[in-house]
TrEMBL record:
Organism: Frankliniella fusca
Chain ranges of the DM10 domain: 90-195, 238-357, 414-518
Domain of life according to the entry: Eukaryota
Cellular component, GO annotation: axoneme; mitotic spindle
An annotated Gene Ontology molecular function: alpha-tubulin binding
Subcellular location: Cytoplasm, Cytoskeleton, Cilium axoneme
Any Gene Ontology biological process: cilium-dependent cell motility
Name listed for the protein in its UniProt record: EF-hand domain-containing protein 1
InterPro entries: DM10_dom, EFHC1/EFHC2/EFHB
Keywords carried by this UniProt record: Cell projection, Cytoplasm, Cytoskeleton, Repeat
Pfam families referenced in this protein's UniProt entry, alphabetically: DM10_dom
Length: 603
């Protein structure tokens, strides 16, 4: 066993060893710790060690052993490089938090303001800068108050050093006293490494004006946004729209009841309001009253600090938007201060509410729309220049056009005239012998007056009145009533521009026109003109023809009843009177004589 090498597997544990403690390495001699002379000879439990295992602990003579042969020569390190002050502290600065009080004069709300600043001390060149952090709506200039420079401490010319700063002291920069309340971590570590213990941090005083203003602002509440899968909603509800039919009753001075369509997009909860245009409704064809957007319920409840002048509301400022449960038939919704009454919805919307929301929409509500009344614009009075139609055209158009004519009447009555003879009502003695011809044009209803020449009368054949429309006396000037052929009969008095004409005769064409158009003339006028024609003998041939026809009819009637021959045996009454005329001729003449009794307005 003694010749085996000390390798794993060749050594065995001695089971007789019971002590395994390690002996001490120092001995106390005269009260001092003295290391043992050879502590490595004895192992644990004070058992002696093997000689081979401690052979390497023997000291080698220094004469025969050179450590440089094993470990190499010892390197001579260079001296530490010298760094100047500005290079050693380049980019390093000390930051102190401070404040100063600024007096406010002639202000009822505040007497002073607390302005918070940061004092920055640059270690590389011992310069100081004072910077004021920006505050919203402060009302005064902010930023760098003191530019970076060395600041004198007293009149003697000494400058501030970093050893002059500490928490809780006052420093004066150019007649402004700053009170230091705290510093950053690097500043405290730097001061402590240089043997200066800084005081505890102080509380920064609050500005009384900012505190007073913050008390007036409402408390801001935070809300946790709901988790909404927009992609799922898009894939499920894209193209699905809820349509509601509503009425907007505009309460303004010139407001009216307008019909609208509310569209609710289920994909993104946006609302769109479209207009319903009708023919001649007097409005520009704008398709939408409200573009597609989310509509808040209380759109006026926004924070006082919200810049509503140039920015629209977002989901962060609005507490609640309109949802499908807010749109029900029979309810009134307010969309941006406009009151809309919902009276119906489409079938898809009714099925969606019934299946998805378990809400049954009400049936359609009958709504009546007032019939628009067109305003009546009265025409201005006739100026007397031209005709009334010319005056109306000047009112209707800036550049007047010629009045429209009745072309059908002109084509049907082209070159048709009704001529009457008349005399002038005696006003002057020289007008007693004057006679006139009144010509009425059926094509346009104008009246022309001609004066035929008379021998030794002093008047030549001339036109007394050019063709024009003649209004009846005592009629409205702006809406006059003109003379028509029904107003012309024998004995009628026609007033033409303050001249009175008495009709004394008529042309045969007048009577023929009356026979062709009996519905345009009263019966008394027709009888009056026919009586005049009979007296003048214009109807002699017509009377003879009619007499023959009546005679034939009476002869046939007598033969049928076996009466006497009217040609050979005249009636006894006629034989006694000595006036024997055919019965038909006498009957026609009696009819003509009976119409001589003209009504009173003809006399």
């Amino acid at each position: 066993m003694e010749g085996l090498p000390l390798l794993p597997g060749y050594s065995f544990r001695d089971p007789t060893k019971t002590k395994h403690h390690i002996s001490h390495a120092f001995d106390f001699i005269n009260g001092y710790r003295i290391p043992k002379t050879n502590p490595n000879i004895v192992g644990p439990g004070k058992y002696p060690k093997d000689v081979d295992s401690i052979g390497h602990f023997s000291a080698t003579p220094s004469v025969r052993y050179d450590p440089s042969l094993t470990y190499g020569r010892v390197q001579n390190y260079p001296f530490k490089q010298f760094l100047p002050h500005y290079a050693q502290y380049r980019g390093k600065s000390l930051c102190f938090r401070a404040y100063f009080k600024q007096s406010i004069h002639e202000s009822p709300d505040e007497h002073y303001r607390v302005r918070k600043v940061n004092i920055v001390y640059f270690l590389e060149d011992d310069t100081i800068s004072v910077i004021e952090p920006s505050v919203n709506n402060a009302g005064f200039a902010q930023g760098k108050l003191v530019r970076r420079s060395k600041i004198p401490k007293d009149i003697g010319g000494q400058y501030y050093h970093w050893k002059d700063f500490d928490v809780g002291i006052d420093v004066s920069f150019y007649s402004t006293v700053y009170h230091i309340v705290d510093s950053d971590i690097f500043t405290r570590e730097f001061m402590q490494s240089n043997g200066i213990d800084m005081g505890p941090p102080e509380e920064m005083p609050e500005d009384p004006y900012i505190k007073k203003r913050s008390e007036k602002l409402p408390l801001t509440t935070m809300k946790t946004p709901t988790v909404d899968d927009k992609l799922r909603r898009f894939l499920e509800y894209d193209g699905k729209i809820l349509r509601f039919y509503a009425i907007w009753e505009d309460d303004s001075e010139l407001g009216e009841k307008r019909e609208l369509i509310i569209r609710y997009y289920l994909a993104d909860d946006c609302v769109e309001v479209g207009e319903v245009h009708k023919k001649n409704d007097g409005r520009d064809p704008f398709p939408l009253l409200l573009h597609k957007t989310k509509v808040p319920k209380n759109w006026k409840e926004v924070p006082l600090t919200y810049p509503s002048i140039y920015r629209e509301l977002t989901e962060e400022e609005v507490e609640e938007f309109y949802s499908p449960k807010d749109f029900l038939v029979g309810d009134t919704v307010f969309l941006f201060a406009r009151r809309l009454f919902i009276y119906d919805c489409d079938p898809f919307t009714r099925n969606y509410y019934r299946e998805c929301l378990n809400i049954e929409q009400k049936p359609k509500i009958q709504v009546t729309f007032p019939t628009p009344t067109l305003p009546q614009h009265p025409h201005p009075p006739h100026t007397g220049i031209g005709t009334t139609e010319d005056t109306i055209q000047n009112v209707l158009r800036v550049i007047p056009k010629a009045p429209k004519k009745d072309v059908i009447r002109m084509l049907h009555n082209a070159n048709k005239k009704l001529r009457y003879t008349a005399v002038l009502d005696k006003v002057h003695p020289e007008d007693e012998q004057r006679s006139f011809v009144l010509i009425y044009y059926l094509s346009n209803g104008e009246l022309e007056i001609m004066e035929p020449p008379q021998r030794n009368s002093g008047y030549t054949f001339t036109r007394f009145l050019r063709p024009t429309h003649i209004a009846k006396p005592n009629t409205d000037r702006d809406d006059p009533e003109f003379y028509t052929p029904a107003d012309f009969y024998i004995g009628a008095m026609i007033t033409v521009f303050e001249h009175r004409f008495l009709i004394t005769g008529a042309d045969l064409a007048v009577y023929r026109y009356m026979q062709a158009n009996p519905d345009k003339f009263p019966e008394s006028t027709i009888n009056n003109v026919r009586n005049y024609m009979v007296q003048q003998g214009y109807l002699r041939e017509e009377i003879e023809d009619r007499t023959k026809l009546n005679l034939k009819a009476e002869t046939k009637e007598c033969l049928d009843v076996a009466c006497c021959d009217p040609c050979t045996d005249p009636p006894p009454a006629q034989q006694e009177m000595g006036d024997y005329r055919p019965f038909g001729m006498k009957k026609f003449e009696d009819d003509c004589i009976s119409v001589q009794n003209v009504p009173q307005h003809f006399n």
